[in-house]
Amino acid sequence: MPYERYRSYRPLVLADRTWPDRELTAAPRWCSVDLRDGNQALIDPMDPARKLRFFETLVGMGFKEIEVGFPAASQPDFDFIRQIIEEDRIPDDVAIQVLVQCRPELIDRTFEAIRGAANAVVHFYNSTSTLQRRVVFGLDKGGIADIATSAARLVRKMADTVPGTNVVYEYSPESFTGTEPDFAVEICEAVMAVIEPTADRPIILNLPNTVEMYGPQVYADVIEWFGRTIRDRDAVILSVHPHNDRGTAVAAAELAQLAGADRVEGTLFGNGERTGNVDVVNLALNLFSQGVDPRLDVSDIDALKHVAEHCNRLPVHPRHPYAGDLVYTAFSGSHQDAIKKGMAALDEDYEAWEVPYLPIDPKHVGRTYEAIIRVNSQSGKGGVAYLMDTEHGLDLPRRLQVEFSKEVQAVTEASGTEIKAGELWEVFTRTYLPDDAGVRLLSSETTTSGEHATRVTAQVLVDGHHRTLTGEGNGPVAALVEGLRAELGVELSVRDFHQHALTEGTEASAAAYVEMVGPAGRTAWGVGIDSSTLDAGLQAVISAANRLRSSVG
Ligand SMILES: CC(=O)SCCNC(=O)CCNC(=O)[C@H](O)C(C)(C)COP(=O)(O)OP(=O)(O)OC[C@H]1O[C@@H](n2cnc3c(N)ncnc32)[C@H](O)[C@@H]1OP(=O)(O)O
Ligand SMILES: CC(C)C(=O)C(=O)O
Ligand SMILES: [Mg+2]
């Protein structure tokens, strides 16, 4: 790899940085750029219906600033902006934002687009990086600053053409991360000298990580330095607009906020140019998971994902933070075990969420517990037991969990894939409750004489032949075991027995589990499910006897 053809880039080192000691305690001012930066990066840009659906979703989430397009760049963008203004679809407390290059004819058209809107952010930008100055514009710093200040004069003048609109100005020194920080301050101050912002009517200065050229810690240093250096800081909303070229846009946005950024521009699930814009859902849920109000409603994350996937015509990855199909799922055995125990230890109305391997309660983003644990060949008894409990209401004793999970593992290893709850039930019934078992209980009568003597008379089929068994013991289970021992002529004894009621709504009302020891010390569990507790216990004995017989055979 020809690494020597690349240069590390660190425009500034802030020795007295303060951001590492700060904490995020409040949400930033959010701005969605889905309908502009996201849309301009799509293979198929959104049609009007998709744009409208996305816009309404963003409003519903609580965004107060939404970049709705680049109206001078395309007729569909222009028409969409006219549509939401003319159809009165913009809530009073929401400002639409429009992007425009620093070019007079484009600025004129932009103001035409926003006429009639109550609140609009006019966002103008030009590239300020050393590279673009040289290869794209062929201009020195003065020439680049002139582009910005001429545009600032024009937007200020054009605001008079939309008297009913509260116009807020936003300026971006685009490709900021390739710009010398002192030149960025110089050009922003030159723009401010034209716009004349005040604390009551601040300007938004947006410092984009247009291409993520350096790590998040360098971005934070530069943002902190910029915030300390820019004049009239109280007349500035310091905004960041991270892209994800290095895969660290979320970190860059968070560190930039620690370093003083007030506002974040990004998209849902990180759609956007190349590797995308910063993912605002991720940022919001990072705050949420630290006990900070994210000021964005992400409580139905699947609905948001559905809208984004439909409108962008791009999928959200199954491992995408907080949103992916698999992110509240554990396949591996020890994780499943810990989650199962963690869930059991949590009260229904817990004070603070604490479950191993799950940073947030899936319910808070509209996901369900059912999807948390899924079983494949990497899974252990915990996951199998969890599904048997949550999906089928069976609380398997620990050693039965161990035994049954081996049966399940054999199936998942052979299939090479996940086993769903329905198929798990099939494996369970095939193993413990098969229809074609050699010994079958037809009916039974139980009589008790004295404290320790229970007598069972059972009608059974043994390999298709009718038999009447009798036995005595200190309970029906022990009595039936004695009868079976005599009939089958093998050593049988009970090692463990559990039973529990089944939840309402199921036909059977009891489940029983018997661990039996057979010839040569072999053990096997048996399971009985029946409307009567007594019969469930007897069925469990028959089930275990069948399993011991077949293991001997
Ligand atoms: C990082 C970002 O996301 S920035 C946003 C990028 N998004 C877009 O550009 C999408 C929408 N843009 C477009 O569709 C087109 O650029 C249009 C329709 C606005 C303009 O189209 P055209 O005029 O045909 O030209 P094109 O984009 O190629 O123009 C480039 C020219 O504009 C100049 N230019 C580019 N950006 C800017 C700017 N921000 N301010 C001033 N001039 C600019 C270039 O230097 C170049 O000048 P030249 O023609 O003298 O060489
Ligand atoms: C227009 C600007 C803010 C932009 O999208 C970028 O630099 O990424
Ligand atoms: Mg961008």
From TrEMBL:
Its EC number is 2.3.3.13. InterPro entries: 2-isopropylmalate_synth_dimer (IPR013709), AIPM/Hcit_synth_CS (IPR002034), Aldolase_TIM (IPR013785), IPM_Synthase (IPR005668), LeuA-like_post-cat (IPR054692), LeuA_allosteric_dom_sf (IPR036230), LeuA_N_DRE-TIM (IPR039371), PYR_CT (IPR000891). Mg(2+) binds at residues 37, 241, 243, 277. It is found in: Cytoplasm. Residues 435-553 are annotated as: Regulatory domain. GO terms for molecular function: 2-isopropylmalate synthase activity. Residues 28-302 form the Pyruvate carboxyltransferase domain. Catalyzes the condensation of the acetyl group of acetyl-CoA with 3-methyl-2-oxobutanoate (2-ketoisovalerate) to form 3-carboxy-3-hydroxy-4-methylpentanoate (2-isopropylmalate). PANTHER family: 2-ISOPROPYLMALATE SYNTHASE (PTHR46911:SF1), PTHR46911. This is 2-isopropylmalate synthase. It comes from Acidiferrimicrobium australe.
